[in-house]
Amino acid sequence: MKQDFENIVILTGAGISAESGLATFRGAEGLWEGHRVEDVATPGAFVADPHLVQRFYDARRAALSTVEPNAAHDALARLDAEWRGELLIVTQNVDDLHERAGAKRMLHMHGELRSALCLGCGERSRVEGDLIEFPPCPECAQQMLRPDIVWFGELPYEMERIEQALMRADLFVSIGTSGAVYPAAGFVQSAKYRGAYCVELNLDPSQGSIFFDESRMGPASELVPAFVDELLG
Ligand code: BJW
Q: Residue 224 is inside which H or E element, if any?
């Protein structure tokens, strides 16, 4: 790998949090027990059975306090602190392990478990406890709150900021994601089209593996710290 990169975009997925104890979506012990995530992570599923959906996300929000960032999150936080060029960590994950590791230049494109979205005014607010009792929105006090998760058919957050960063990136790194869900799965092609060097760090080849210049296979807790050491020289 060449060494003279300036602007980096890093995409992370469920695989980076797997070794912290959070299940991935499409693995053997995938989320939503028996249901394909594509069938249930939709606005329609929430309308059909809001209690089920709130209970599911309440349990996952509560589980956050039982897990810790792993060596891969720590390494990316170190890269964020020490990298002098531009850097943006775009996570598809709704956990808070990147920020708890200390990463600052990051965003959650698929929402956050510790955030709630008002069905009326659309404001986002921090939430630590449960939403099963449908508390009113702290902003408008009128409407109820739903999990602030981007479901299928909804627009991911901060797409413009991501596109801008991809346009400037000369290194794109994808970590722990299957490449099954768009638009994130298409970032490698956007980055490549604009000339970025593209590296994949994953347990298995992702669906878009052929688009990467380099694919390193193994657990994120080993691959990511080694990769960050290489970048920081
Ligand atoms: C390890 C590891 C270890 C394991 N170390 N690695 C037809 C064609 C193309 C697109 C579409 C289509 N039909 C519909 C669409 C669009 C749709 C889509 O992509 N559908 C697909 C099913 C085809 N997308 C959308 O609807 C999105 N919105 C949208 O497109 O809006 C329109 C638009 C956008 C932008 C511009 C213009 C228009 C919204 C997608 C929302 C996804 N939301 C979820 C939330 C789930 C709810 C919840 O959290 O409960 O986000 S789905 C779920 O998948 C979650 C994840 O962020 C996302 C990606 O999963 P991820 O992270 O890749 O996890 P896995 O499990 O799939 O993979 C884990 C990987 O880790 C594996 O590869 C393992 O090998 C690896 N691994 N252990 C390293 N220790």
A: helix 220-232
* Number of the ligand 1 atom closest to the C-alpha atom of 13: 62
User: How do 214-217 and 197-202 pair as beta strands?
Assistant: parallel
Q: Which ligand 1 atom minimizes the distance to the CA of 219? A: 5
Q: Does residue 19 contact residue 219 with C-beta atoms inside 8 Å? A: yes
Q: Per-residue pLDDT tens, the chain, 233 aa: give them.
A: 767 899 999 999 999 999 999 989 887 666 665 667 777 789 998 998 899 889 889 999 999 999 999 999 999 999 999 999 999 999 999 999 999 999 999 999 999 999 999 999 999 999 999 999 989 899 998 888 999 999 999 999 999 999 999 999 999 999 999 999 999 999 999 999 999 999 999 999 999 999 999 999 999 999 999 999 999 99
Ligand 1 atom with least separation from CA of 181: 19
Are the C-beta atoms of residues 137 and 125 closer than 8 Å to each other?
yes
φ, ψ dihedrals at 60, nearest 5°: -70, -35
Cα(22)–Cα(165) distance, rounded to whole angstroms?
28
Give me the active site residues, please: 110
Ligand 1 pocket, CB under 6 A: 13-15, 18-19, 24-27, 31, 37-38, 41, 92, 94, 110, 149-156, 159, 176-178, 180-183, 202-204, 206, 219-220
Q: Where are any strands of DSSP class E within 1-72? A: 8-12
- 182 Cα: distance to centroid of ligand 1 (angstroms): 6
